[in-house]
Amino acid sequence: MSTATVTDVTDIETTSMRHTEALPAHRQAGSIAVTTPADLLRIAVESNADLDRLERLMELQDRWEAKEAKKAFDAAFAAFKAEAVKIIKGKDVTDGPLRGRKYAELHDVVNAVTPALSKHGLSSSWRLTKDDKDWIEVTCYLRHVAGHEESVSMGGPPDTGGAKNAIQARASTKSYLERYTLKAITGLSEQNDDDDGAGGASDDPSGHRDQGRGTGNQSGASYPQERFDANKDAWRDMVKAKKKTPAQMIAFIESKGAQLTENQKNTIDSWAHEDD
């Protein structure tokens, strides 16, 4: 019968402790430790890293935060779309070819989308991004509380139709552009979306009635030549100033459903070659 020495006991205890201490590390090997750029930056600061390394880590942190903000925006926007927001057409068209129909004014669109946007941490706003004498551009911004934002821009000439003064003409166009950019950035439209009162609603610019965005309900109708003649000088100036290409101008005019004739398209295309 052998007797264990003090040395033997010490070796056994030491070996046992090593196995015991290794178990937690072994169990942690199966888990994923999430290390963010902020963690790396903190470690770098604590280890007195040089300025160049700190700057690179700060840039990495900025990109990581922007990516996370975009993810949060996408999730919030998907939740907003799931609300199935309906835009109520509250304005009657009282004259013109669309008499008897309804369309949504700016406040109808705002009242419809704002509660659902706010519910999911989203908000919208506008900025006048171009204010030239013959051209107005409005940009609509959609922001999320996490910091990400997206935008949509639209432009058009002042609405000189009717008995408007210069200020009213610009205000009319601005209201129109705000309405359409808000619908565009939220991906919403009115049910059976028509040309929003293009037949004579007072708040719609006459120039934009043929140039706005929308699905239209006049498929197959030809664009009236008298209206083309009335607007072509302003359109020609836009093409000549390279604010729109002929193709963009044609798409812009036809977006309401009334199709340009081949002669009208050729006329628009010729404006880009007048100085050739």
Structural features, described:
The chain is mainly alpha-helical and 276 residues long. It has 8 helices and 5 strands, in the order αααββαβββαααα. The chain has helices at residues 6-28, 37-46, 51-81, 106-119, 166-186, 225-240, 246-254, 262-271, and strands at 91-92, 102-103, 122-131, 136-144, 149-156. A hairpin with a 4-residue loop joins strand 4 (136-144) and strand 5. The model is unreliable at 1-31 and 193-219 (pLDDT under 50).
Residue share in helix:
40-55%
Extended strand count: 5
Mean pLDDT: 75
Number of helices: 8
Distance between the termini: 113 Å
Tell me the CATH topology of the domain at 91-186: Double Stranded RNA Binding Domain
Record keyword descriptors for this entry.
disordered N terminus, 3-stranded antiparallel β-sheet, two-stranded antiparallel sheet, single chain, ERF_bacteria_virus, mainly alpha, ERF family protein
Write the layout of secondary structure elements.
Layout: H1 6-28, H2 37-46, H3 51-81, E1 91-92, E2 102-103, H4 106-119, E3 122-131, E4 136-144, E5 149-156, H5 166-186, H6 225-240, H7 246-254, H8 262-271
Antiparallel strand pairs: 1-2, 3-4, 4-5
In short:
This protein has 276 residues and is mainly alpha-helical.
